[in-house]
Amino acid sequence: MTIKSLAREIHTSNVYAGWWPENRNRGEVMMLIISEIAEAVEGYEYDLKDDKLPDEYMFDVELADTAIRLLDLCGVDADNIPVVWEARLAAMDDELSGDIYAYLMRVVVYVSKAMEGHRRGNIIEYGENLWNALATVYCVAESYEIDLDRIISLKREFNATRQDHRLENRLKAGGKAY
What we know:
By secondary structure, the chain is mainly alpha-helical.
């Protein structure tokens, strides 16, 4: 499966699950990506196990959550956004020298640039920065020997069975809105 087809698959399943009502606020989704990164930092700093996938480390799972949200956004406009994947991955390790905080801050910078591109209606700038953020997440995983695709798969399987992710439960007062 290509990265673009994975993005389409994740986005399609999120639409089907009701996470993409008409006019979904993409800025909100990008802020949720930043919150996943913050949770990853917490897991990394305290060497915590994940509360949803207790056999996995929180850092690994939050990194996967970051990737899932990025893939979801990339999947919205997958046919209109050029994938800048391989070249970005090849250059990343030299650029950041394995510093976890530099990697994660680079994700934040790319998401911020994507937001600016989206705000200005520049789909290319928006998309390239989303792909760059995703490539950076994969570089973090590679640097720390995390099988990100496996963790993404585990988290997607878990999310598919979560009661708080069911549309009828999200629509209730106090339900998970996003």
